[in-house]
Amino acid sequence: MRFSRMINVVGAHACGELNEVITGGVRDVPGKTMFEKMQYVEKHADYLRQFLLNEPRGKVNQCVNLVLPPTTPEADAGFVIIEADYYVPMSGTNTICTVTALLETGMIPMQEPVTKLTLEAPAGLVPVTAECRDGKCVSVTFDNVPGFVFVLDGQVDVPGLGSIKVDVAYGGMIYCLVDAESLGFKLNNSEVAKLVEVGERIKRAAAVQIPCVHPENPDIHTINQTLFAGPLHTTPDGKRSRNTVIVSPGRHDRSPCGTGTSARMAVAARARPARRGRDLRPRESDRHRVHRSHPGNHDGWGQARGSPHHHGQGLDHRLPSICARPDRPIPPRFPRWRHMAGFGLRGRAWRR
Fold it and tell me: What is the pTM of this model?
C-alpha cells in the first residue's frame, strides 16, 4: 500500500494526560531557536496538528510533541508542543512524556539509575533528571523555566460573575489564577463541567482586560489558561493545596501541568511582603523543580505544595505509525464533538 504520509509516534500519558511524541516522519524545520521553530510549524506546517489531533486520529484532550534537533549545544534534544487549538512555549506533562519517549526508544541513551539531560523547549532550556530502572524511565524531575508575576490582586469583570479578584503569572504559559472558594468551588468531580465553563469565561475576559507581554520575548503574550486554586492545608509533609487548570478549547487538565504549579508558586513567593517590590522579570532563581506522581496515585487534580517539589512518571502506552493515503484526504477539521467539557476520575467525560 502506498502512503502519502507516515508519521511515527510514541503514545504516552502522565497521570492520564495524553501527550504523544513524534519520533519519525518529520525532518527538522527552519529556525534559529526552538521558539522560531515552533512559530514555523504553526505558520507553515500546521498540517501536523490537523493530521494528528483531529478525529479520527486524535481528540481534543490530547497533545503532540515534535522532537527536533536542538539549536544550542547545551541541549540534548529540542521539542515543539502542539495542543489541540494552539502551540505553547512550555508544558510540564509534555516534558515528562517527551523525556520518557526519548529514553525508552533509545533516541537518547539511558543511564541507570539516573539519566541527566537537557531539553530545549520553545520557552527555554529545561534541565531534566530521570530515574531509570530495568530499561524503563521510572520518574522524571525537571527544573522549569523561570516564572514570574504580572499582576497580584487584579480585578476582572466577568459576564455572569461580576468583578472577581485574580492573579496573573507566567510559568511557561500565562495563567489567570482564581481562588476557587471565592466562587463557591470545592474542586471535586461533580463540578468539572461548571469549572470548565466558568474557567473559559474568566480567561476570555482576563485576556482582554489584563494585557500581558513577556518582558524578554514579546511573542509570548496573552492569558491562555485559567487555574482554580484551592485553600492551603498543613500536612506532615508541609503545606498542600488542590488546584486544577482549564485548557482551551474547553477541558479540565487531568494532570495539571508544572507550568501552572510554577505560576502559582511564583504568586505565592511574590505575595510575601518582603518581595513585593521586586522587578517583574524572570530570573534563574525563580526556576521551579517539578516531579510528577505515578498515574495510579493521581486523582485528576493537582497538588501544589509549599516547596517546589512535586511527585511523577510518564508511561508509554502505544507505538503506532499514523498514515494517510493519497486517495483518502482528511478534511482540515474532521467532524467531532464540539468540546470535551472536562475529565474526572478514570477518564469519565462530560460534553456540553
Answer: 0.81
Does the annotation count 190 as an active-site position? Answer: no
How many domains does the chain fold into? 2
CATH number at residue 99: 3.10.310.10
Rounded to whole angstroms, how far apart are CA atoms 129 and 132?
A: 10
The radius of gyration of the chain from alpha carbons, rounded to an integer in Å, stands at 19
* Measured distance CA(60)–CA(54) in Å, rounded: 7
Task: Going residue by residue through the chain, which has 352 residues, state the pLDDT in tens, using 9 for 90 and above.
Answer: 566 778 888 888 887 777 889 988 888 999 999 999 999 999 999 988 888 887 767 777 788 999 999 999 999 999 999 988 889 999 998 999 999 999 999 999 999 999 999 999 999 999 999 999 999 998 898 999 988 999 999 999 999 999 999 999 999 999 999 999 999 999 988 998 999 999 999 999 999 999 999 999 999 999 999 999 998 888 887 777 888 899 887 788 766 557 888 898 888 887 765 444 344 455 555 555 554 433 333 445 554 433 333 334 555 544 555 544 445 454 454 433 333 333 332 233 332 2
Evaluate whether residue 252 is within a structural domain. Answer: yes
Residue 95 lies in a domain: yes
Q: Which three cell numbers stand for residue 54?
A: 483531529
Same domain, 15 and 133: yes
Task: Tell me, yes or no, whether 42 lies in a domain.
Answer: yes
Closest CA to 22 of 119, 111, 94, 91: 94
> Nearest Cα to 139, choosing from 331, 307, 290?
290
* Domain contains 83: yes
Of these residues, 91, 139, 241, 255, which one is catalytic?
A: 91
What cell does 55 get?
478525529
Grid cell of 128 as nine digits: 531534566
Range of the domain at 97: 5-145+314-338
Which residue has cell 511557561? 172
